[in-house]
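Quick start: what a row looks like.
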Amino acid sequence: MNSLDEDDVSGLGGVHIKYLMHCPRQLWLYMRGYRPERRNTQVQYGEAVDETTYTRRRDLDLGEAKIDWVTTGAIIHETKSSRAPSDQHDAQVRHYCLLLERRGVNVRGGVVHYPLIRRTVEVTWDRTARTLAEETEARAHQVIASPAAPARLDRARCRGCSYLDYCWSG
C-alpha cells in the first residue's frame, strides 16, 4: 500500500466521514488509493439518484468536500439513495456544518433527503453536534494515520460494500 504524506490527510471530506462510520478499514484503504467504487453498481445507482433528484439545486464545492446544496439561512442538504436513514449520513452532514462554520458561516443545521422513500431527517447543529463532529474528525485522522489496516467487520455487515472482495478474498 502507498504511504501517506501530510497533504493526503489535511482535508477530510464527506466521503471520509461516511467511510469511517461505515467501516474504518474502508477509510484506511481508500486513503491508500484502493478505489473500487467505480465498479460498484450500488455506488453508480446512488450517483444516478443524486444527479436526477433535486435538479434545481447547485453543489457547493469546498475543495475537500462537496455539499449537495445549502439553502438560505445556511441549512445544509444532502441527498441519499438509501432506503433507511443512517448515523453515517447524519455524521456526514455534521462534518459539512463543521467545515462551513470554520469558514465563518453561521450554520443552522442540516437535512438529509431520502427521495426513494420520500422522507427527510433533520440534523441538529449545536454545541453537542459540533463536539461530535470534531471527535469523528479526530477518529478519522487516527484511522488514516495508522500504519496497519483496521480489522475487517463481520462479513454480514459487508454486504454490498465495494471493498468486499479486497477484504474477504484469499
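That is the whole record. The chain has one domain: 6-168. Residues 94 and 149 are 26 Å apart (CA to CA).
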